[in-house]
## 1
Amino acid sequence: MKTASAEPVTTTGSIPAAEQAERARVLVVDDDQRNLLAVRTVLEDVGEIVEASSGEEALRHLLKGEFAVILLDVLMPGIDGYETAEIIRSREQTKRIPIVFLSAVNKDAEHLLRGYEMGAVDYVFKPVDPVVLRSKVAVFVDLFAKTKEIERKARHEQALLDAALRANSERLKAEKGLRQAEQRQAAIIQSLPIVLYLEPLECEPRCPKFVSGDLHAMTGYSFADVMEHPDLWIERVHRDDKAQVLAALEERNRTGRLSVEYRWRCSDGSYKFFHDQAVLLNDGDGKPQEFAGTLTDVTERRLLESQLVQAQKMDAIGKLTGGIAHDFNNLLAAVLGGLGLIERRAKLSGDNKRIMVMTKRAADQGSELVRRLLAFSRQQQLEPAALDLEALHEGVDDLLRHTLGGLVELDWSIPADAWKPFADQAQLELALMNLVINARDAMPEGGTIQVAIENRTVTDDDPLPLSEGDYVSLAVIDNGCGIAPDMLDKVLEPFFTTKDVGKGTGLGLSMVYGFAKQSAGTLSLSSEVGKGTRAELWLPRASQHAPERDRRTDEAEPEVLRTLNVLLIDDHAEVRGTTAAMLAELGHSSVEAGSGPEALAILEEQGDEFDLIITDYAMPKQSGTEVVRRSREMKPELPAIIITGYADEAEIGARPAEVALLMKPFTLAQLAGVIRSST
């Protein structure tokens, strides 16, 4: 018997020593040498580290050999990480190499989604945690090593099989079966760890012969259920996706590949988004044998994409609404100011006085409409107060008069001894409007919606998440289709809706719930399918000393202590003219300017003649805060007032604490009051 020679001895089932010595290679791409050194230090015992300082250098390395995993920096000069990943995924020889992004920023959902779309399998955020990095990379290195081991075994077993073929046909069959088993094992390892399946070439209706993974947890059905009901799969594909899926299967028969996303109804009746992928496997003679594929649940990803689109849409609506409301406030400031001056100066009687009252009421209603628009766009400052329930009743009825239609009736029940809730009236009206519209949509055939007000006291024994004390319950009750028990907890989640596509944003109930929580209350829901729903809004009872909400204009005669010379700045000519007339009515004189630069030029020449600056905030060349800042450089002690049509002080930007803010539209008494407090 011969002794060992320089060449390694190979026996059945063993691997040549030269092949066993190979180490998995890890490509690290970062333009910062310090980061490269740090990653090398952490991973040098995990695999062979290959460094690249740019995307171009990384692509050159990928042409020269195989890698177990690529660690790719997102932000680099030249082509960045996203572009590099896209090029890697577009090349046949590199598209299956796992990519892990290294990032110090861009942790929001939009950038994460972009990274995953470019082919990333994971993210690691800087500064890198060595334990986390080693763990993630070790998984891919181990997977790569196992894949290579399988390939080496396949090559070795093929050599044994060829040798045995000449000696024993039965052994040839056994080794051939072993090789096929190893091919299946390799396919499973390289696939996503969700649900893996093997499907015959000819299978009508479609039915797999092998499934690996937790199919029951994913769909509610077991493999036995699928085998027992062969039509189950196609029957539960969403009807809107069925044509697309069948076309993809036809294409699979021609090309040997399948990749399609569709909705599939699970056993609980809910739909999930599945990504179905498959490739054709050949036998040892190169003949088509079966399809190997993966079924991946991508519902969460699709939901995240949908939420992002909805959030962007609602943000745009909010900005648009706020801008429109600002313009309306400018117009209403001129209208209401002018009407107030006419009413004071002209002695009207009879029909003329009634016309003036009607016109002012219409303008006041316009101001109220703007306030509600701003409340919708979340740009309205909250003003909690003790609310009159009858006034709330009238306000909600006015809002819904043209919305409910002739089939639905709104019935209010307000006890004589009902307590007053403590909340922001505009937000409460909006919340009730949302609840009533939901109730209307649940009764397509029409009916009566009840709004029931009750006094409630909460103790420690109550299950509601409320502090002890007195509350006012406002319940909206319908006898519509109701909500299924498994959906009842979900309807309060943002963007969740049971309505058809295009008929709801999924934000109504979540906005109501958010308002209730901000007001130290809560929203409770109870429903029965086919019988109706009760949505109950709980708000704290107003104390006896709480201020009451009063929207009436203060008509008290303004008191003028002394005559002032005012520098008045507003780019809106009508508003500027009306404000100047109101100042004159108060006994003050004014010099008008249509822009910030014009006003500063006047101030530089006549600065000692002015007692007060009144400036609009939103102007095209210089904002009101900038005008005040520049004027303080020339006249540090000169008082100033900023007027604005925006509803949120955060929109006004930084301003000195002593500079008063007057919201449009304003009355003569309000103007007099802010002048008095500022001078």
Note: The first helix runs from residue 17 to 20.
## 2
Amino acid sequence: MPEHSHLILTTVTIRKTLLVAFLLVSLLPSILLTFLAFQVAGEAMRNEIKQSLQIQAATVSQDIDKMLFERLQNAQTWRQLEVTQDIRVNDIDKRLSNFLSGLKTGYHDMYQELLCTDSFGTVVASSNPASIGTKKYQTKSAFLNRNGSGASPIQLEPLQISRSNGTTILPIAATVPSTFDQGQLGEMYLMFNWTQIYHILDQAAQSGHALILLDKDGRIIAASAELRNNGALLKKTPASWSSGGQSGIGTHDGSLLHYKEVMVGYDHSPGFQQFPGFNWTTLVIENSQHAFIPVRQIAIVFILLLVLTSAFAIGFSMLVAGRIARPITALTAFTRHFMRDKKLPEAPHLAEGEVGELTKAFVQTVTELEQSQANLVRASKLAVLGELAAVMAHEIRTPIGILRSSAQMLSREPGLSSEAQELTGFIESETERLNRLVSTLLDSARTRPPKLQPVDLQPVIHHSVDLLASQALKKSIDISLHLETKSTVVMADAEQITQVLLNLILNALQILPDHGQVTITSHETSKKLVIEISDNGPGIPQDALTRVFDPFFTKREGGVGLGLAVVQQIIIAHGGEIHAGNRTTGGAIFTITLPMEENT
């Protein structure tokens, strides 16, 4: 049997392994499709990032051109106002200065200062009174030309970056024409606050990018806050960052900006409306490590999904394999426990299908085997008991009879003392007890085969109770009957069944204290008659439940331990079963099952 159980378990293990391997192989297409999907999604994400950098560069470039175009429009409009003619009289009544102060206030922080100079470069009017009378500006830049030919009345001064206070100014110069002749009175200067460009770049950088504004020579003239703080202003970027067309995208070495690698989207200034632009270039820079975080996140998501899918598939396969193998494994464990402990363990749960049928048949076989072993042991004990009873019948009864007769004769002697009378009484009672013991042994060893005939057990049960009514009355024990009203006819030997009932009821009466309770019930189930005899006494100890029917086993003082062995022998001879147990409410219960008569 152990070799068979080992073979079964090995077969189950191989099947489980093959099932898991099959599911893993079936997962390979899913794994490959997941990998390809990740590659496609990653490439699409990279292209989307590059496209967004290029679009953002074009948007920021257009915003800068729009802002500067509006400033040039301011210069073009203001230089032709009538109030600017006060330059001729050096703004003696401060009308022009007050006008410039009002413009600066109205535009808030757009301009650092607004001023006008005469033809010699001396400041005659300004929004800042401290500048009046100074000679600060001398136009050196080329005039802006909208159409590429001829001179423009508006020009840009070089960008002024102050290292001391951190302010940056872009002077916009516009000639002021004279209304009295064809000459020029002087120039108007709009000191554009370059911080406004920083604001545009900083706002765009909130998306996590860095931005740079390059002049035509590739120098950084504006940058977002992070790069400004790192000293990037006025540095030159590699020409490759913004070459190759009006706009584009590229991946470059980012050591200039303290990055390992950067993705750069660039856009050359396209101008705004009729304004051709300043030939500046806007760069939107993304650290490649940061740019591909979404790609890596997608990769992690795909990997997690793949791991979860694989884990679910493996877990599901193990669950299926376990459900297949669990009944056989339980049957194998059942067999091992039975072979190791030499007693019947708890039967495994019955599965459905062929495995369930196999388990049921195997458990039944093992149960019958154990029952056969128990019957063989009991038969051996009874055989020994029979031999002992035969010896006692021939060798013990004769001297017991002599002792009893001698004691009776001595008790009749005249003049016998009271002590002698008491001793002879002891001899008589003890020899009588020994004679009963020998009779009991003979009855146990030589139980005759039952004479089976249809018997209604209800009268038999009532008769047995009536025989023991006086003993129950002495201890005020109540014997209650709850018998099924249907026919209780079985094939039995009425005398032997009476012996069984008397033995069980008498055991209950002997163990119960005064005012105890004995209950006898009967009912039919599956063509079998079930009789239960229970009490509310101390019950049967757990360690004695499996031995109560063994010959010579007893827990009652003075008992021989043969009564229940005889009871079981009689019930088995009738083709029935008897079991001992304890009630949940306390007390012992003996359950007898007898086959009903076929014709009932």
Note: Residues 173 and 189 are 5 Å apart (CA to CA).
## 3
Amino acid sequence: MLLLARLLAVGAVGLVAAAVALRLGGAAPPSHPHSWFIAVVYCLLGERVVAHAQRNPVGWCLLATGVSGALAAGATVLPDQRWLAWVSAWSWWPTYSLLPVVLLLFPTGRPPGRRWWVAVGIAAVGVLLPAVGLGWAAWGDPAEFWHQVFAGTARRGVPVAVAAVGFASFVVAMCAAMASLAVRGWRTPGGAQRRVVWWVLAGSLVFVPALGLELAFGEAWGAWLVAAAAFPVAVVIAIMRYGLYDIELILHRTLLYGFLGVLLIGVYSTVVLITTTRAPTQGNVIATVVVVASLAPLHKVLLRAVNRALYGARSDPYRALVELGRTLAHPMRQHELLPAVVSWVGKGLKLPYVAVHLDLRDSAPSAVHGAETGSTRHSVVLRHQGRKIGLLVAEARARGEVLGRRDVRLLEDMAGQAAPAVHSARMALALREADARFERERREELRRISNDLHDYIGPSVVGIGKQMGVALRTLEPADARARTLIAEALVDLETLTGTVRRVVRNARALDLGPNLTQAVRRRAESIADGLQVQVTPTGRLDDVPPVVGRAAFLIAGEAMLNVVRHANASRCHISLNRTGSGLEVSVVDDGRGLPDELPFGIGLASMKERCKALGGVFSVDQLTPGTRITAHIPFEPS
């Protein structure tokens, strides 16, 4: 239904535009402005009412009024065509006669009571019979029909009687419509609904005398304009002021801008016509209005396109803020937030350089969009919960320019909306710095402990063992008990020496440094025991977060130990693959594989727990032959 209404409205307005264009080409004299004014105004108003109240006949009646006006305007384009002249003879009448029907049904789509349906029927007769009578009477010679009517030479007969009955019905219906509005206004409870009815009644009271003046003096332009505009002006006031048909604010604004546009077009056209050297004809008036009405929207479209190309989203700040909010609402990792903020601000405002400084002092920016041009800079303080957390710095679009007030205001609004995201990125950066600092301190402490074990405790244990060996050799053979105790102590010291060496070796292995691949290879060499181990890195691994690298090293080492102890394998392949979001560790062997029921021992359980603790995914797969252990460890826990 709504599509049909829009097609009718667009078709009617297009017909009027075509009629005006043909008239400008000198094809025919223009129709009375009443017809095309009714066509444009009533079609647009009717389409809007239908869009919000499709089952209400008021909107459809308004649309029918506009379509009738379009037919009347279009039928005058080619007066030599007999059928167009015939349509022109009667199609103007519904533009007047449909108004009583609208008033009787306004605004609910039903008359005030059941008895008022009789008045609706009379109003329908007032619409149909005159159109039928005029069409019937004009059928013989439609081109000369109205000339004969005004000259008093037109034939009389049944068609005239039919039209006369219809005209009388229209008068009765109009009086009934005015009475129905008065009754409806009296019965309606106080408030906005009653005021709506009173406004429409006032418009109708203006319409009646204006219509009389127009019918009596056909060239009285002011009369026809008042008669044509009285009802739509009253309805628009009811829509804008009292929310008639629950039409939203956007329509209020559209109607307001539309009327302002019509007013400006009228003023401009009047000035142009008054300042011309000769008296304007109707063709001059229509041409001027068409040119102004065409240039105004074109100017608006071009101006909007130019502003968007030069200044970005400055012309529509609400949309800019919404789009920035949507950008920040998308799932992003912490290291992606600041680049996303500066990129959107730079592209959205067409700025050559935008940067975020998380340190309020003069330091390197944390994220940058574009390149510095040396133009004037503007800085906006980023605040979160009242605290300064950084600066948003933007450069003007060209040298010698400064950011305008609208740019600065929008930049400040964007900074306010982006501040929570910047705060989150700032906290994530501080956490990474704290983690890196902790890792450095841990490595230093681990290096100190391993050095102490290697340089002090290890030699001391060896020295004690040598001394006890000397003591064992100096004991008498008769001291069997003492010799036994010393021999057992020597065995324990040898075990302790091996333990210290292993702890030192493992501690140094955990000091991965910047090269995770070399650390895994050293670990493989220390535990291979005849197993051929190949380590293959993929992607950049020197900047892997320390906690991720340490977990990958321990998982790879534990997996190799399982292969050496249980798999009876000859080859083992370890893959260290950097993905977009983390590090994937894969250990594949060609051993005897897993039993049917996988026993998750201490080794597998520790690998799984270590991976899960960092938000990763751990899996064990049976191959033919062999086994594959895979751990995907994200750089940032999800």
Note: The two ends are 50 Å apart (CA to CA).
## 4
Amino acid sequence: MKSKSSVFIIIAVFSVAIFALVSFARTMDTKREQLSIQLRQSLDTQANISLIIHQLGYTGLIHNFKNYILRGDDKYYQAAQHNLRQLEQQLDNSHVYYRKQSLESSIKLIEQAVTHYELNLELARRLRNQGLSVQEIDQQVKVDDTLASKAIRDLIGQYQVQSANLLRDQLEREQGHNHDLYVVVALSLMITIAACAICWLLVVNVRNELAGLQKISSRQKLLDASPNPILVVTEAGEIVVANHGAGKLFECDKDTLIGRTIEDFIPDSLRVQHAHYRTLFFHSGGERTMRNPVELTTEKGELKRVEVQIGLYRLDQEQFAVVHLLDVSKVEDMQRHAEEIEQTFRMTFQLAPVGIAQISLEGRFIKVNRQFASLLEYQVSDLEQLSINDVTPVEERAANQMAIDRLIDSATTHVRLEKCYKSSTGADVWVINTLALYRNVNNQPEYLISILEDVSYRRKYEEELLASEAKFRSIANHVQGVVWMATPGIDSVMFVSNRYEEIWGRSIESLKQSPQSFIEGILPEDRPKVIAEIENHRKGIWKVAYRILGRDGSIRYIHDEGAPVRGANGELLCLVGLARDVTEEHLAKERLKSSNRQLEQLAKFDPLTMAIRRPYSIADLEECIALHKRYATFASLVFIDLNDFKDVNDNYGHEAGDQVLSRFAACVRENIRETDTFYRYAGDEFLLLLRETNSDDTAGFLRKLNAALEDIKVEEYPGVVVSISCGIVTLGDDPIADANSWINCADERMYEHKRQLKDKGQS
């Protein structure tokens, strides 16, 4: 019984002990979970701080903001806008973390800095859209981020202190828990020493479980709250702890890093060397913190250069390397880019096509480029030993100091003036000098920048232009016509020569006051034509003839023509023209036309019969043949020969013959239509072309003509009788190839008709 009681008592005590141990374990788990929650909150808070630093710092908003100021590239503006949106979201989330903390004032400072950057970013964009230079924008857009940087540092520092305190509290609590555990275990052992071995195994299992929990907790507390990537590595190189930053750096989930060796992320060529360095570090005992730049490869194979800080941490006879990683690839890229910008600036300074100089506030040359020295005909080294007054005429030196004082004492960013310098040979060098003041970050003036543009050639051109204008006026006033220059559309008269007053009888001043008043001197019937041409004048085209009423009341003929004058980019500037009095030319042309008409009559018409000469008949006959071929249009050709004309000449003389020819021709012209044509072929032979006339109509016409010829009487020669022999060929009745064959065919039929008449006279 006692034994059983003892067993029951032992079992009861053992059960109580087990219950006490279980309760104690649950209490430890609850406290551990609470501490883990605090640690996770601390880590999340620091991760949020890390994101804020990333979005705001020199890889985020500040970087993009300053690049946009210096370059004006819109991609930096868009990147800065993206940083601002991310910061606003992160700062809103930050208020949730800090609403019960004492650091909310630091967040407010950061929010003020972000607002300040946002306002200045929009100000820079407006200034750039207004066409301001980089220097002018940099002078007007200033952002002081000192307070915000201090606030971020305070946040990081205080949360690191808080995390360290949490870790220390956890260690102290665990030590207390371990002490209590040992007391409970000792009492349980004293009470259950006689119990079965099961109790001992249970205690061993509990201790092993607690040791495992302690080990896990020890690894967990190695996580630093820093936003930088952190790894915890064993002496064998195995990664046992990795934070979110490490996952981002290696481009993978942080959990996938656990269990892998650090050499997996070292380039192949460096793995053996890195393993050697790792062994040396652990054997050194961790007496000092190592810091070295190394190259790592990410999970995606990208090569990154990082700065490594390594510290040795001992836990339960084990050594761990706590590795802090900082990605410096972008920083090195920025440094290289800054060096490239500096090199580009130096090359631009030296190779600029204008003179550029850096001048001290006292007026001495600090640095000059080759173009600046070339303008003043100095060597660069020699000019850098002088002051601005040394190359300025004595009477203009006071103006140099006035310009410098104006830049220093006022808000003026630059001054621009035309002035004269003296070259090394003493020659005058006229330039446009632009002076700008450079101020440091504290807005204190440091030095001047002078930009020279050589305008000596322009002054020379201005003098030549004045001389050229005088020559132009002199030449224009001696031209036999009105030289004028007007804007498109004759909205303004820029120049008109003196001949205008002589030809138009109007003053030049009246024309300049009313540019289109010259139209009032044009005859009313010609004005609409001139007014209509003004629209072409706007296009650079002007060529028109018109008549005006001259000063003496006579009508004068004017030929007015202009040519366009265009600018460098092709725009129409004005028209220059000449209005010539072509009255004499016009009259001469009219006389020439009259003479030409007379000559044409003499050349085309036979003066005795007024019949068209033979050569002109071929073209008319060919035309009729073509019309017949195309439209089947009839036409008849009559070959006429005067009967016994030789006897008239022999018996009565050639004068009688001429009268017979004249009377015959007049009779023919009176009986033909306007569409018919009468030709003198040769001597007393004639051709008669009857258009749109068939053979029947032609025969009827000849009967009418013969009747009319019988009525012809030559009073001086009463014995003379006019009669004709005819040969008729109508297109369509006979095949005709061309004009000559048509004439030959009609000629043959005329001779046949003549023989028939002779045969009748013989009978």
Note: The longest strand covers residues 303-315.
